[in-house]
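Input set for joint prediction.
Command: fold jointly, output tokens.
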Amino acid sequence: MQADDDDALMERVKARDQAAFASLVARHLAAIHGYVMRLTHSHADAEELAQETFLRVWSRAATYRPGTVRFTTWLHRIAHNLSMDELRRQRPEPLDEPDTFEGGAPDPERTIAAREANARLDRALGELPANQRAALLLTEVQGLSNQQVADVMNLGVRAVESLLARARRTLRERLLET
Amino acid sequence: MNDYSDPNRDSDPDRRLEAWLEGLRRHQAPPGLQARILAAVVRRDPFDRALDWLTSRLWRPVLAAALPVLVGFVIGIGLPEEPDLDLAGTIGSLAFVDLYEELDDAAQP
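tokens >
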């Protein structure tokens, strides 16, 4: 199970095992980079924030307590707090074009309409309030449970559910716009 | 009632939303970022080790700071005891010094 593996790797990271740290980075970097990039909507910031997130994992490994929190929750909390600090520092938020960073193989069957819809959703995501954006990304993209998202964002589960409902409604409305 | 749908509208918003989210899930980190993170850890490691040494073995700097006090205490204990001062005698002597000086001044022509 990946959570157990993460905990085992973190035990080795606590003992300053760089190979174990490299395994953790390889396993979670794409998810964390994707999350901070969509949250800050800035490619340049995303690299810095993802790097700083993992450097904090290394330097604060001793503070990780397996059993009280899952590693993915702890990791996302670091990334989330760093990103929110960054967003608070720089207002208005930068609006890079996120399409260029979309991973995966290109889909030859993508229609123009689908591409337009994706562009609309990308813009809508960038225009959502940061809390709604974070809640949506953490559940739908990062695969965290509502309880985990509540832990990451330091909110109650009900508040997370409310943020999610509003975010989904906004995105759906944006899709239906002509 | 007109049943024609707007051709610009997506026929299934939920499906489109899910496809878009699936695209976000397939995100890949920029090439080279992983190597930069690992290199930064290698650079930072000696600093971390020094910090670990200080925080996990805090008794060392505390002991280093307290050592002069301990040495002074040990030396102080090793010294022979001073003879007791006769406080009353000392005060009396000082009082008489003043008295003798006044008498001397009075005896001066």
